[in-house]
Amino acid sequence: MLKSLESAFRTNRFFLFLVFFRWASLLPALFALNSPTSHPVDPVWVLVLALSVNIIISFFNRPLNKLVVDRPFTMGIDLLFSGLILFLSGGLGSPYYLYALSPLLAGAFFFQMRGALLNSAIFTPIYLFVIYFTPNNSNFTLLASELAGLWLFPILYAFPSSLLRDISRAREELSLARDELAQKHENLTTAHRQLEIIHDLTILLQAAPDLISVQERVLGAVTTELGFSKAVIAMVDPTHEEIGGWMVYPHQPSFPKMDTLPLKSESGELAKALLNHTDFITQGQTLIDDSPLNDWLNQTTWFVLPLYLREHPVGILLVEESGLTRERKSTLTTVANQAALALGTTILCIDRARRLAIETERNRIARDIHDTVAQSLFGITYSLDACITMLPQKAEDVRNELIELRTLANNAHEEVRRSIFDLWPSALTIEIFMADLTNYINSCCRPRSFSIIFNHRGDFNSLSSGLRRTIYRMAQEALANSARHSGAQSARLCLTVDEDDVYLDISDQGRGFDPAVALSRSQNREHFGLHGIQERARALGGDCEIASQPGAGSRVIIQLPIHGLHHHE
Prior knowledge:
By secondary structure, the protein is α+β, with helices and mostly antiparallel strands.
């Protein structure tokens, strides 16, 4: 049976119409009760029988409806009953003729044209059998009319039934199409929302100046944009293979502070998730080998996502699990992947800046040793060889030479001490900054003199120690280049500290140079200078501009953000 009609009939609409027709068809029999008749059975009893069946059908229409739909052959019982009513009421011209059409119409409504034709074909011999065995049925015109009605009425009712079936089927198809479009619209809306969040997060992360800012913006995107009530993030230090840098959003005073822990399985389930690259939902297990933090985390059920950049762990994200659907989980995973990329890139930038600082410091030390200590040691060695050749004939001359060598050795010793001290200048105030630079440049330019004209504005001492050391190293390199190569007698250093940036401007009126040629040479490991300053400035989120031309002096302008990437020396 067609599902559409079955659904329609089970709403009882069509069947109620048939029940109504069955009751209305008894009106002619009711009006004919007082008419003279030669029926073998009292018309009242025939009416009572028909009424009884109608009452049963009316009260039990739902189960009977289902029975007809599931087992169509049961309609044969109703056909036989209609034939019995015609036989008891006189056959041809019976007032129950319309009543006898009820099962035929039901077949047309339930099974369309096939049901109409089949029921008419079955009921026709029953009808002829009744007519044959009842008296006074010789009116062939009436017989032909009633026989035609047995076929025409069901066929006529089958057409609207077919139309209703097609309408119901079309309605179902439209409903399915509407549901499918609604689902696709919902999926597209979710995908669009994901893209919006990822786009906004990407823009925010690109503008994030340091690792802490990246963490804050990731947590803000997860909570504010995705609607999760709470999130926690921790970072992985790839150099020492440790977990640390914990941060929660929204900020909670009860969140415990902790030191870093080694990235090993013994450190808890979070470390295992990072090592195995698996996400999970917490269930009260030991998440981290730190009792205060573990107790705080176990107050909430979390969805844990390890953050990876390629095959390298960069951090771990914990999001409160309540309200986590499959769609939100998919969106969260996408955002986490984007966050891992941003965090990993920021860590790489910091590591690159650190390596560049180390390389620059190594080059500076090599240059200082070459320019001072190595030359002094070479002179001492040469003089000692000369003393050996003069002994014992010129003992007095050897004595005087050894006195000078002692002085030279003391100077070399002081140079070594100063180089060691310069590895990590402590308490670098603006006064020490200017004094150390002056001493350093004077040692580089002996025996000729070279002066530095200082001009500073802003609070240099308020800067972080790392940033102050960075500025000191850049100034050292730029002034050393000016003192050694410009031919000028002085250089001007202007240091400006404002709310967001530091500007270092070093200029001279010397012979100048071609910046392109100088930079290409300075990329060689045997050369030190401007290229290293540019690389360090850009790695720290700033910039370095070199302006010079032969015969027109030179100028180095450096800009560094105060709240930029972490400044490592």
